[in-house]
Amino acid sequence: MTFELSLLAVPKSVPELRHHLRHHSFDVRLCVSELVTNVIDHVGEGTPVTVRVLPTDTGGTRVEVTDPDPRALPVLLHAATTDESGRGLALLGACARRWGVEAGADRKTVWFELTAPNQESVT
Hints:
Elements: E1 3-9, H1 13-20, H2 26-42, E2 47-55, E3 61-67, H3 88-95, E4 98-103, E5 108-114
């Protein structure tokens, strides 16, 4: 089942998005929440975002979060235990089979893929 939603990246959008995705796995909801929060924090509150959830050929799930700033690329940080932020992409990397960024001239899409339930993770 394919799902697409356009929204403004504001804090109240995150729980609303999770509600729209309530029929998807916890990992889908967790990781997409991290990506939308990254848009709020690093691109700016109120940024228009499109979220797409698609099935993969192997029965897994692919999620894409697109925003209009191709320059603000995600960076995997190594947060210290006392840091208050910097763990979102590490969390994404731990949950997702794979993830990446597709940059265009006027937008970027950060995506991740999760394996189907009962499939072994490929790293």
